Structure formats: structure tokens, C-alpha cells
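Sanity check

After download, print the first record. It should look like this:
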Amino acid sequence: MKIHKWRKKKMLMVILMIMGFVAAGVGGYIIYSSYKINELSKMTFEEMLDFTVKNNKDAIITVGIIQNGKTTYKVYGENGMELPQEEHIYEIGSVTKTFTTSLLFKSISEGKVSLDDSIDEYLDLPEKSYYPTIKRLVTHTSGYKASYFEMPMVANFLQGKNDFNGISGTMLINRLSKINLNDSDYSYRYSNFGMATLGAVLEQIHEEDYTALMNAFIREDLRLSNTKVSESSGDLDNYWEWSESDAYIPAGGILSTITDMLAYVQTQLSNRLTYLSLAHEPLTDINASSEMYQKMGIHMDAIGAGWMIDNGNNIIWHNGGTGNYNSYVGFDKDNQIGVVILSNLPPNYRIPTTVMGIELLTSLQN
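Expected C-alpha cells:
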């Protein structure tokens, strides 16, 4: 009996630890740095970069800029050394969400779905008085938590794998059926679960698996040749493992390169795909910038369809982080300036790309 109780207690401890890690998984907005936050405001982008890659022989950070109609990029390694201008394949984490919402807005432009539709119009869910609307999913105001515990998380945690690997669409639907919410705009809460739900809705709208659907959209509409849903392989190391048709892929499962991501930003800046611009429009004010974020220059004043909006700096942006990668994408549409930073370092390693990217982008604006 004592052994049984100890096993139950040990399992509970593991579950609590897992939920702590998962809360920040797939590139949320919790930013950690070993450097004193107050000193960040005094640092230039170059100083931030040098500090981050100091004495790290494995670091490969690629920095891309769009300005004056031109795109350029450089690759940096240990101690800020400029490396050969090679393209590397990075996990972009939660920047994936902007691809998912881009596909959503294409679907809206085709009359297949509306932001005001509730998710039970598309998903096979038990009858309830209320399910969230798609608008609340994309603005993270649905009331859903960042994620919910599922049994595959135990093995993933113990084996050091991607927390969300093996969480199926069936598990997602079962979880949705158990959650009870009120019909209201909840306070902003970043939700990988909500974006996973949007992915399931898109699958039903298009009657196609998300991976095939997204890869076709990337290739045919966005015209990107080196971006795709992850197959856990590339020229770098420590990619997250995903299982086929994992429910959380729409929240953080895409791989890309610097030239593709710069082309992606150029498409956001242009009018080639007009429905993309609609995703940049503020849907709700969230005022989610904590005092710590503001000290680091991170402003989350409003939110569009997945995109964060910094009103003061006129920046539209998103970041991403997986176990071993972190990324930042930001742009100023009025001045046609964009920045992409892709890193093979974890988001909690020294100064993350989000802080470096904002510093670089605002310096270009000035």
C-alpha cells in the first residue's frame, strides 16, 4: 500500500513539473535572461548579440533585415564571429501561429468561415450552451489555458521530448468537450491549446489534414520553398519530435530558413495577398505588457489575428520558442522595415531573440 501511494505521489510530482514546463512551451511570451533586465535598455543590438553568443561554440544565430526595398542577412557564431552566409533550418516555434492565422484569413476571404463562428459549428462536440468563437481563439481571449495535461506528456517529459508530441486530435476533442466556459471575452491568456483548436477547425473546413493543408498553402500561396511542417530533421541539431497529425502542430510545428522568413515578412508588408493585411488589424486591446516586459522593450498593446501589436513603436510582431530554438519576426508597415532573427539557442538562454529583435527593429526605425 505504501509503495502504491509513493508511486501516485511521484506521478503527481511529475505531472506538476510537466505542466510547469509546458506552460512556457511552443514559444510563449515568458522571457528569461541571466542578464540584469535593467541593463538591457542600455545595450545595443550588437552588445546583446555578443553577450548571447559569448564562448558558445554551438551558437548559430541568423539575423535578417528588410529596409529600403532590400533584404540582407548575416550569420553569427561564437563570440559574434560572422560565419559563412549559409542558410540553416530553424524551428520557428510559435511564429507558426501566424501561418495558421494566415490560412484562416484566406479561408475567410473565400467565404468558408467567419471570425464570429463558434468552434462547434465545425467540430464534433457535445451540445453545450456555449463554445468559444474563432475570434476569441486567435486573440487568446477564449478562456482556454495555455495547454492541458494529457498522458503522452509524462513519457515526453521523462524522455526529454517535445511536450506536445503524441497528443492526438481525438485527445483535443475530448478535452474540448470537458471544458466549460462562459460566453464572454476573457482576459488575455496565451493559449497553445486555442491555436491547436483552430488547426482542427481548419482541417474540417478544408477536409484535409493540417500538415498537408499547411504545406500546400506555404508552397502555393506564400511561395516559400524551404518552409514546411517539421519532419524533425535539418542541418542543425535537437529538433523537436512530432508524431503524424499531432494536434499542437498548428501552434508551433513549422521549420524555416532566413530567406523564406524574410520573404514571408515581405509578403506581410506588400499587398500581394490582401487578406494577410486584415490579420494585422487590431481585434482587441490586451495591454499585456508587464513591467518586466516594458523594461525589455516588449509591448503587447493589442492583438490582431495571432499577431501582437506594439502601438507605441508601430510594430507588428510575433516570437517563438521550442526546447532548443527561439525566433523573432517584426515589421513596421508604414516604413516598410522588417527584422527576422532565428536562433538555435533555447528561449531562456541569456538574451532571447525577442529582446534583440525589438532593439534592432527600433534602431532601424530611428
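If your output differs, re-run the checksum step. Summary of this record's structure: The chain is about 35% helix and 15% strand.
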